[in-house]
Amino acid sequence: MLPGVDYEREWLMARSAADVLNAVLAQLGFTASLMRAQAGWADDGQGTVYLEASPLGARKLLRALERMEGDPQTA
Asked: Is the pLDDT of residue 43 over 90?
């Protein structure tokens, strides 16, 4: 751990972002067993959000992103 780095603050911000991302994933039909976001922090103390997916979840996300790519509203 680095002196002077507020790891808790960074983790709490990452946790908030992960919670929002998990809510969006749930609205899109992704269960936690398919894909979930989790908070953490990097070596330098910055908050990070990790996205963990099963192989099926990763393929489902790929298909969703491919559909969005062809959507003029997202271009």
From this structure: no
